Amino acid sequence: MIARRRAVRPKRIVVYCPLPEGGIAEHAHYQANALARAGIETVVLTSQAFLPDHQSKAYVVLPWLAPVYAKSGPRLMRAIYFAATTVINEAIFAFRILVWGPRQVLVAATSERLALLWVWPHVVLRSLGVRYAANIHDPQRKRLSGSKLTHRLSILAGFLPIEFGLLHEDFSSDQPDIPRHVSCLPVPYGCYQADIEPGDGDALRAALTGGAKTKTVFLSFGYIADRKNIDLCIRAIASLPEAVLVVAGRVASSHDKPAAWYRALAEELGCADRVRIDDGFVADSAIREYFGACDVVLLTYKAEFVSQSGVLLLASNWAKPVLASSGPGPLSKTVREFDIGLTVAPDDVEALREAMKQLVEHCHTADGWSKFREHATWDRNVAVLLDAFSGEGVDERTKVEERA
Question: Are 298 and 150 in the same domain?
Answer without folding.
Answer: no
